[in-house]
Design brief:
homodimer; DNA-binding
Chain lengths: 196, 196
DNA sequence: CGATTCCTTGAGCAACCTCAAAAGCGGTGG
DNA sequence: CCACCGCTTTTGAGGTTGCTCAAGGAATCG
């Protein structure tokens, strides 16, 4: 087994525009993809979560044309895992990326509270609780408020207010860590993404 | 020469979710891509303009997974033109689509006036004036106000107001057609996309 | 335990939305 | 040709939402 598995902490750079490297599959955590404006500043483009492929453009250019940064602690493995990718694998990647892009676009429609709620639902993942209590609990590690703002095209103060609202509404339940309630890690206590 | 060339008027459907067909290259005009929500209603996903490929997912599923509608009168040709597409051609399509997605996402950032202005600049194309006056004039046929609103995540009244502003500011110059100034067809009289 | 960075909360305001009415455009048929 | 219809666009007035600016509190790291 190759040990090329990559681990990045929240906020760490995974790759930058123009550097060399391979494509990766996101095994856990979440990643933001940015493009670089001619001026050099980066702006949010897309989101990658568990199962998504990032950096596929390296097969064509062998340099990354986007930048990738960890939104939460995340694990990546080189892609494709073994043999050179089939045309089908490529197409599957293409269509998956298109669907993800569609979801990301949708995150910028509608009321702020809904947008943030939908983003959180996208990031949340089933918690295989080990316990057999049948309740399909969801857990989520939130990105920084600034990252959430970049994704939803809101301001960080607005996102902060909405996360507070969701907490008060009982939709988000902060995990307890040595007495403190975490600002990042939550249990998600409502299934629908359609808020008022 | 095959006559499979497709011509669609403004507002006409090009293909729908679930129907069979091939991929197309947009030769002229502009196209909106929508996805279908589980509820059945369609929501804007992406934009295709001159040179873009749409419906590439048919190579994998042979059914369209998005819907496409003409934003302005447009011409399409089957893709790939002749031989089965190479892996490179696929990848090129993938990365082009990613770049387009990046631009579309950016159309939902910042102030309304800037967003609309940037959209118009994306849609505008160089007018080979036939005349040798050297001025690289730009021309654009605008989509309906509602379509522009869907793309920029604004409301149609807001888009209408901003188009009026741009007209008054001399950035858009309505083409004259038998005495009337067109609401759709404009000369673009400013190069930068960075408004105040 | 500072120092730094991130997050929260408040107050006031501008931008954008909503609702509504009227005008413009395009087609159809008398 | 004109009258009429439906649809799109424009424009106005007023209300909300989300932004800006600012300050204080919580978390993280050396």
């Amino acid at each position: 087994m190759r040990s090329e598995r990559l681990l990045r902490k929240r906020g760490e750079r995974i790759f930058s525009v123009g550097s060399r490297g391979c494509a990766w599959r996101v095994v856990s955590g979440s990643v933001r993809i940015d493009r670089q404006a001619p001026s050099g500043e980066e702006s949010f483009v897309s989101l990658a979560i568990c199962g998504d492929i990032i950096g596929a453009e390296t097969f064509l250019f062998d340099k990354y044309s986007f930048a990738a940064t960890a939104l939460s602690e995340c694990v990546l493995v080189p892609w494709p895992e073994a043999a050179p990718p089939s045309a089908e694998a490529f197409l599957s990647t293409l269509t998956k990326a298109e669907h993800r892009a569609a979801e990301v676009i949708a995150l910028r429609c509608g009321q702020a509270a809904n947008r943030v709620h939908r983003l959180i639902m996208m990031l949340a993942h089933r918690l295989d609780a080990g316990v057999r209590d049948g309740s399909a609990a969801l857990q989520v590690v939130l990105p920084s408020r600034q990252d959430m703002a970049d994704i939803t095209a809101l301001k960080l103060e607005t996102v902060s207010r909405i996360v507070s609202q969701l907490r008060q509404a009982g939709i988000l339940d902060p995990l307890q860590r040595d007495g403190h309630s975490s600002l990042r890690q939550f249990m998600v206590c409502q299934l629908g993404t359609d808020a008022p």
